Q: What sequence folds into this?
């Protein structure tokens, strides 16, 4: 049997400290909560190098008298509880008595404090759990705690700290949540010598929201308040139109303590059901006031997870609070119409198909603007005035090109050139439509009988007048079985007949995959567009930190993002494909992903960014698609053997065999 050892005191303290002190943000949280429990209404926090080398927190609370200073740094020494019954009704933020002892075990701590009524204050220094100094000090009423050189005596834990800016943003996130949970406390946050946050402490939650989350975010909120069977919920929720792509801006507090509650977020989102777009989430700052005996906060060392005695009651209180606020406070969405400048299209000329290669279908209708090589856009007036199909008066040339023998089937190539006669001479090439078809003549004898193709009298067309568009370069074409585009169902699924199969193509999923592959192939050469008016985006501190850590990754993906300070970033350049999208939403979505996936595998991050960009840029289900676009799209899809699933894993094409269809109709 192995020997059982009693650990030395200093080693036991280092192990226990790991449960409370993970990073500088943990220290800030514990000390600021102690200051609030001490009755402080003014707190000043200063950090340097993310809090790794220096943290100073000053408050005007009740202070600590000299005889209790040493006790404050003993593990499990606390003034918050005295017996087991007190654990059933905890109203203070701290209660375990572990914070100061754990902090002192892994850093150099200096405390200056003076209790109310004392004439002289106390200065106490402790390093690595060992007392260094206890002496008189001149200081105001309250407490100042200085923490230096975190993990100086535990280098193994020091290496797990992030970059200074990341640690500083984590501290800022803690300060934000404390400021929102206690609007009656004025908080000043100094970061590397610069003021990063100041709240007035006037007791108004709207003032705290404005100071912490910014004017733009605060303007999207509506007040919410409701009481149900002793449970009172109050605060702010976002308007449905201003929903966000993730849940990072959902702040729940229980008796002024920040918590993470699945009950709360499910209740909130249920209240928004049928009022919010799919894939979007509401934002909120909600404080739940409940009897202390009905909740248990002694569940997790960080005290962010709680257990409710009646989950259903909490759910109903939050649900009806949000529901009533939406009914009374939500207003109609105001239109914001911006005039866009005209875009010009660069012509792409296509070489003539090479004889003997796989037959393909080409069509071209040039319109005012182009977002991709086969998805066309046009102005509203042009769209209304344009005919559904080509004009009836056309010039047509039909001629046999080549006859190939393939068992009992002959392939006959024909060429049709449709010209609109009213086109001006200098724009005639824009009115040309070129097609190549495959005519199948079955049951013909290869050697004895050649198929007779009856051709109409051709009109003579100058070869120089025939111009084609749409293909960037001539290349070897894969062997694709001939097909026929039948049409489109529900403006979402393209129907294609190919041999003995019927293909159903999801145009959004397929286009998304095409764009995704295009972005991955181009990477550094992705087309971008400068914004005339840069977009400012407010993020949570976790998202903000993740974006700043991945600026180069975003730049490679086509997004030029810069730090705008205080949890905001500014976007000045984006991929052309998403220029017409909700760019603030795009940045929030990217930031949320980067915050949740902190791996250093840059290609994986870029892949996800390309996923998001392609999804937003791809044509949406329900959008009208012209005949030319359908044919061009099917052509490109069937000639790309690697396009079988969208970036999210959904199939882009489903096959139905002729046999399966006839079986369902009882024909076989």
A:
């Amino acid at each position: 049997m192995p020997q059982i050892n009693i650990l030395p005191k200093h080693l036991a303290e280092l192990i226990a400290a790991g449960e409370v002190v993970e990073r500088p943000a943990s220290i800030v949280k514990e000390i600021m909560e102690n200051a609030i429990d001490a009755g402080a209404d003014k707190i000043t926090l200063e950090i340097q190098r993310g809090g790794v080398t220096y943290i100073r927190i000053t408050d005007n609370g009740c202070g600590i008298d000299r005889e209790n200073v040493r006790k404050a740094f003993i593990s499990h020494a606390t003034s918050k509880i005295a017996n087991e019954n007190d654990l059933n009704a905890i109203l203070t933020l701290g209660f375990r008595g572990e914070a100061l002892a754990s902090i002192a075990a892994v850093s150099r701590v200096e405390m200056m404090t003076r209790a109310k009524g004392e004439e002289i204050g106390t200065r106490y220094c402790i390093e690595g759990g060992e007392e260094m100094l206890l002496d008189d000090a001149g200081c105001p009423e309250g407490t100042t705690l200085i923490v230096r050189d975190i993990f100086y005596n535990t280098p193994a834990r020091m290496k797990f700290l992030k970059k200074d800016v990341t640690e500083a943003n984590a501290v800022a996130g803690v300060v934000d949540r404390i400021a929102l949970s206690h609007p009656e406390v004025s908080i000043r946050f100094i970061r590397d010598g610069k003021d990063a946050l100041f709240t007035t402490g006037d007791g108004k939650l709207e003032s705290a929201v404005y100071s912490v989350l910014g004017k733009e975010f605060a303007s999207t909120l509506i007040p919410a308040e409701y009481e149900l069977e002793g449970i009172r919920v109050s605060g702010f929720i976002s308007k449905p139109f201003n929903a966000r792509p993730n849940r990072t801006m959902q702040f729940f507090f229980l008796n002024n303590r920040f918590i993470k509650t699945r009950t709360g977020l499910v209740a909130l989102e249920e209240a928004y059901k049928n009022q919010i777009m799919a894939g979007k989430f509401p934002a909120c700052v909600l404080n739940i006031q409940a009897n202390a005996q009905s909740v248990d906060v002694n569940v997790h060392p960080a005290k962010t997870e709680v257990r409710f005695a009646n989950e259903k009651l909490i759910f109903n209180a939050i649900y009806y609070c949000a529901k009533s606020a939406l009914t009374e406070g939500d207003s109609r969405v105001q239109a914001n119409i911006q005039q866009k400048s005209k875009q010009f299209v660069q012509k792409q000329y296509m070489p003539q198909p090479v004889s003997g290669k796989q037959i393909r279908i080409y069509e071209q209708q040039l319109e005012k603007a182009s977002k991709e090589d086969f998805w066309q856009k046009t102005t509203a007036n042009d769209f209304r005035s344009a005919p559904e199909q080509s004009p009836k008066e056309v010039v047509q040339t039909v001629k046999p090109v080549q006859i190939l023998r393939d068992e009992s089937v002959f392939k006959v190539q024909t060429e049709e050139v449709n010209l609109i006669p009213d086109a001006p001479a200098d724009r005639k090439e824009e009115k040309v439509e070129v097609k190549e078809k495959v005519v199948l003549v079955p049951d013909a004898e290869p050697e004895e009988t050649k198929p007779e193709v009856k051709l109409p009298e051709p009109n003579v067309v100058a070869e120089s007048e025939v111009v084609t568009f749409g293909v960037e370069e001539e290349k070897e074409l894969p062997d694709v079985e001939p097909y026929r585009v039948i049409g489109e169902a529900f403006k979402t699924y393209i129907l294609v007949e190919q041999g003995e199969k019927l293909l159903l193509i999801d145009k959004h999923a397929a286009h998304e995959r095409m764009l995704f592959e295009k972005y991955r192939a181009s990477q550094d050469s992705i087309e971008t567009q400068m914004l005339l008016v840069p977009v400012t985006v407010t993020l949570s501190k976790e998202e903000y930190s993740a974006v700043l850590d991945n600026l180069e990754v975003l730049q490679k993906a086509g997004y030029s993002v810069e730090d705008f300070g205080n949890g905001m970033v500014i976007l000045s350049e984006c991929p052309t494909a998403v220029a017409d999208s909700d760019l603030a939403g795009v940045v929030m979505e990217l930031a949320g992903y980067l915050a949740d996936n902190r791996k250093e595998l840059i290609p994986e991050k870029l892949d996800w960014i390309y996923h998001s960009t392609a999804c937003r840029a791809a044509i949406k289900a329900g959008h009208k698609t012209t005949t030319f676009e359908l044919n061009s799209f099917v052509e490109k899809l069937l000639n790309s053997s690697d396009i079988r699933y969208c970036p999210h894993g959904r199939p882009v094409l489903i096959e139905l065999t002729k046999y399966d269809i006839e079986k369902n109709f009882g024909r076989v």
Observations:
- The longest strand covers residues 409-419.
- The chain has four domains: 9-202, 220-329, 348-477, 481-668.
